[in-house]
């Protein structure tokens, strides 16, 4: 193939024509090495945002992204290697109890997670509230911890899918994030680079999710399952509600405390339900029988908690936090947000709660921002709950009273208190699985 002209490729996509495999491979390579500048890739991203990618284009695009850098080689590790990916939400700390539960059932979990941005939190920020806990490893370090403990909870290395690192930042700045082909190829290229035997997706839908409508959440799930299938990796997706925060804790250290409750057999019912459902799917992809029983047993026996302690030690963290969660960063004040009227909670908006937590310092509005691990929000009144005037809707965990004052009005707008009882929507809305 002669070297394509980037202007011709942009023109083709803009006019709704199909890019060839060679053209896509060249484009991703040339963007990664800097031959194609950001401004031309931005035009291409917008053309894709508007025109989409056909199935063959999507496969070629994902493949080219996947091979833009290092790909893990884990074939020497015995047993199935299964990961979970969530499209992100508010209070979504599922990975933290899930990974040790699954690993305690004998499945390898090479988990690569991200950091919080905007109203959504990130697993790495939460884990790093454990004193000493390291999430940054080179390939050998990642491999060693996975071999020794059966799980690793790490960030993505600089060399894994570098094309996505550049392209995601560009999309963030050019209003081209929320495109199903671009999201699905971004997520799946990173997951396929982990050399997995199976992947479980938690595709969130609702006010606190990327996808606010059920149809688009389903389309995103089906698109990612299709990419997995084209690469021979079985994928199961659960579509789960993100209208209200998951569990009660929204923040960082407070989410570790709540995760420890789940690992000890307690925790809020919605968080426990999703964690167990995803664990069962991961075990089933690994070919483990009686998955539900195995998951229950791993929690009740204490094996899951023991596995968590093992990985905390392996990653340099202080395991004493599991016995004494007060060793985690703590806020100076816990200030209640009080209900001004009685009634039934008909809305508890995940996005508003997430944005309020971000403004307290629990999250980032820009990638470079530092987070404050101690601050956050504990949601007390959830959808369908009955509240009396003066009841606590949420407890705001802050450093100073002024921080509470600065978000009080906005946070309060997350709740709607009505007259009539409502049926809280089911948490798990749908399950889609690939047939390879
Ligand atoms: N998460 C990703 O990794 N990529 C996207 O495009 C969106 C969410």
Overall number of structural domains = 3
* Order of neighbouring strands in the sheet with most strands: 1-4-5-13
Helix fraction by DSSP (H/I, runs of at least 4)? 40-55%
- The CATH architecture of the largest domain comes to 3-Layer(aba) Sandwich
The SS-based structural class is: alpha/beta
The residue ranges in which pLDDT falls below 50 over 5 or more consecutive positions are none
**What is the strand tally?**
13
List the helices and strands in order: HHHHEHEHHEHHEHEEHHHHEEHEEEHEE
Number of helices: 16
Largest sheet: 4 strands, mixed
* N/C terminus separation: 33 Å
Strand content: 15-25%
Mean pLDDT: 96
> At the fourth CATH level, what is the homologous superfamily of the largest domain?
Nucleoside phosphorylase/phosphoribosyltransferase catalytic domain
Give short descriptive properties of this protein.
single chain, 436 residues, alpha/beta, Transferase, Pyrimidine Nucleoside Phosphorylase, Chain A, domain 3, Aldehyde Oxidoreductase, domain 3, four-stranded mixed beta sheet, 16 helices, 13 strands, 43% helix, 16% strand, globular, binds uracil
Describe it.
It is a single chain. The protein has 436 residues and is of the alpha/beta class. The protein folds into 3 domains: 6-52, Transferase, Pyrimidine Nucleoside Phosphorylase, Chain C (Transferase, Pyrimidine Nucleoside Phosphorylase, Chain A, domain 3), CATH 1.20.970.10; 82-324 and 429-433, Nucleoside phosphorylase/phosphoribosyltransferase catalytic domain (Pyrimidine Nucleoside Phosphorylase, Chain A, domain 2), CATH 3.40.1030; 330-418, Pyrimidine nucleoside phosphorylase-like, C-terminal domain (Aldehyde Oxidoreductase, domain 3, Alpha-Beta Complex). It contains 16 helices and 13 strands. The strands form 4 sheets. A 4-stranded mixed sheet has the order 1-4-5-13, with helices on both faces. A 4-stranded antiparallel sheet has the order 6-9-11-7, sandwiched between helices. α1 (6-14) runs parallel beside α3 (38-51) and α4 packs across α9. The radius of gyration is 22 Å and the shape is globular. 53% of the residues are buried. The mean pLDDT is 96. Bound molecules: uracil. Uracil binds next to α9. Uracil binds at residues 168, 177, 182-183, 186-187.
